[in-house]
Design brief:
single chain, alpha+beta, 3-stranded antiparallel beta sheet, 11 helices, Phage portal protein, Phage/GTA_portal
Length: 356
């Protein structure tokens, strides 16, 4: 389809760019308009409602905020998206670097290129895919791009992309398919388990002794309700302080099981190892340790190479492959992250990703 002059966009795509442009220009938004949170996910409200209705016996869902309550996921995500998004996109012909296209390092929207890439990688991690809306010039070249929020686009039954309910043409969007299904789908059970582990750990810290029951052993010394409440309160206060409580005459105590503290230590460490596997990261970067100590010597340079060659490449390659197709850059050229910054033994003091 040949275009001359300005490109006519369907309402779904146009509204994405219009809103971003108005924010960038400082134009006041109507009171009924608000920016959607980047933490919002597709059908989040539906998932929450279903989980609330069915409880533990129903379908297992995890939301974006659930995932971000797991420290190991937060750390792993930060390592991947924070490191990759700092590296600028570059265009190559063979092994030779050529002049980059303007959209790779600048934009007319409110979402700068670094943030656009950061949330694109984040989408691939959490949801398994991401979408850009693109504008094109008269020669079909891309002139600008912006990431579409996950809850603003969908695939219909015919596998056509819809943005804000409107079907769009293939040349008006760029769909990124991640290297695996999103964590919110494949790791929902582990997300819930990690949250439960953290909750149990917090309860254990708050009550550092096992669950106990106070029982009346002498019917002639049965306390009143007020006396019982006061006794329980003083007992709980002593438990939280790790002190000793006095049992009045006629009362006994039963201990209902004891949970060893190493269960939480080992369990939390095992969870870090699991999340390192999910994210294709070295366990050491998530402060996790394997069952047996390793005597293998490694330098910081070795660790950096492992991160770049194995972990970051796993997430970067699908994005680079999509941005190297002929509808993005001319035939014979390819797009890749410029990793010169990461490969340098001496790190510069400024981030390499910056707009001109």
């Amino acid at each position: 389809m040949h275009r001359s002059g300005a490109m006519l966009l369907p309402m779904g795509i146009r509204s994405v760019f219009d809103l971003a442009s108005r924010v960038a220009s400082g134009t006041a938004l109507p009171k009924t308009t608000r920016l959607a949170s980047p933490y919002a996910g597709a059908n989040t409200l539906t998932k929450v409602a279903v989980a609330d209705m069915w409880g533990e016996d129903g379908p297992l869902f995890a939301t974006y905020l659930d995932a971000m309550r797991v420290p190991a996921i937060v750390k792993g995500r930060a390592l991947i998206v924070g490191t990759l998004s700092r590296q600028p996109l570059a265009k190559f012909r063979g092994s030779e670097k050529v002049k980059s296209d303007p959209w790779m390092y600048r934009t007319s929207t409110a979402q700068n290129p670094q943030a656009r890439m950061l949330w694109t990688i984040d989408d691939c991690i959490m949801y398994g895919s991401s979408l850009w809306a693109v504008q094109r010039g008269s020669k079909e070249q891309i002139t600008d791009a912006i990431r579409v929020l996950p809850d603003e686009w969908e695939l219909d039954d015919d596998l056509r992309i819809k943005v804000r309910g409107q079907k769009v043409d293939a040349d008006e969007v760029i769909l990124f398919e991640g290297p695996q299904l999103g964590l919110l789908e494949i790791a929902a059970a582990d997300i819930r388990a990690s949250i439960a582990m953290g909750r149990s750990w917090a309860q254990r810290v708050d009550s550092p002794v096992p669950l106990v029951a106070l029982k009346i052993e002498d019917a002639n010394h049965e306390p009143t309700d007020d006396e019982a409440d006061q006794l329980i309160e003083s007992w709980e206060t002593a438990r939280r302080k790790g002190g000793t409580a006095l049992l009045p005459y006629g009362l006994g105590m039963d201990v209902h099981g004891e949970t060893p503290t190493d269960l939480y230590v080992n369990g939390r460490n095992a969870a870090r190892l699991d999340w390192a596997n999910y994210l294709a990261l070295p366990a050491s970067l998530l402060d996790g340790s394997t069952a047996t100590a390793s005597l293998t010597y490694s330098t910081k340079q070795d660790s950096r190479n492992e991160l770049v060659d194995l972990s970051l490449a796993y997430w970067a390659t699908p994005i680079e492959a999509r941005l190297s197709q002929d509808d993005v850059v001319p035939s014979g050229t390819r797009t890749a992250f410029d990793l010169e910054y990461l490969a340098s033994p001496t790190q510069p003091t400024q981030s390499p990703a910056r707009e001109d």
